[in-house]
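---------- Forwarded message ----------

FYI, see the phosphatidylserine decarboxylase record below. Original note from H. follows.
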Amino acid sequence: TSPADGKILHFGRVKNSEVEQVKGVTYSLENFLGPQTKQSKDLSSSSFQDHLLLSPDSDLFHVVVYLAPGDYHCFHSPTDWKVELRRHFPGSLMSVNPGVARWVKELFCLNERVVLHGQWQHGFFSLTAVGATNVGSIRVYFDQELRTNTPRYSKGSFHDRSYVAMGDQVKPAAGEGGVALHKGEPVGEFNLGSTIVLLFEAPRDFTFSLQPGQRIRMGEGLGSL
C-alpha cells in the first residue's frame, strides 16, 4: 500500500539497473542505494539489480510518491517487512518538484536521503526518504541516532547503521536481526514535502493498479499479485 499521501510520479519494472524519476529521466540504482552490503560470489556476471534479488523467478519493481508541501508529511510502512540496514546519504536539498526532476538527471542521487533496506515475504524491500528544498530534516521514529541536515558533508559519502530489535530498544548489530515493521505503522516524517521511493522484489506477475500523476492516500493499494 502507499506509504504516504501524495502524487504517483512513476512506477514500473526496473530495467538495466536504471530507474526513472520522471518519464525519460533515469538514475542509477547503484548510485541511489549505494554499494552492495552482501558480497555475492560472482559479481562480474550479473548486474547490480540481479544481486538484490533473492529468487530467480522475481523482478524488481519501483514506485515514486511525491509529497507536495501541503500534503500530510508523515510516512508509514507499506507492508509487513523487516528493516536490516539504514543508510544515510548527506547531500543537496534541491527541489524534487516534478518540473525540476525532468531537468536534473540523478536528482534523487544528489539529494540527501535515508535508505531503509530489508526484506519482505517476496525478498528484497527498500523504502527511501528523499530530502527536498528546506527538507533535509528526515526523522525515522525507531532510530534516535539519525541526524540529517548537517551542512558539512563530502559528496558521495554515506553512513550505515545495522539494526536488531531488542525489546523497545534499537541497537546496532553485526549479525542477523532487524526491526519488524507492520503495514500502516508510522515510520517517520519530513518537515515539509518530499519524495518516497519504494524498490521491491516481487513475483514477475505483480501488476500495478496505478496511473502516472494520480493522487494517492496513505494505505491505498499500489498493486496486486
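H. also flagged this: The chain has a mean pLDDT of 82.
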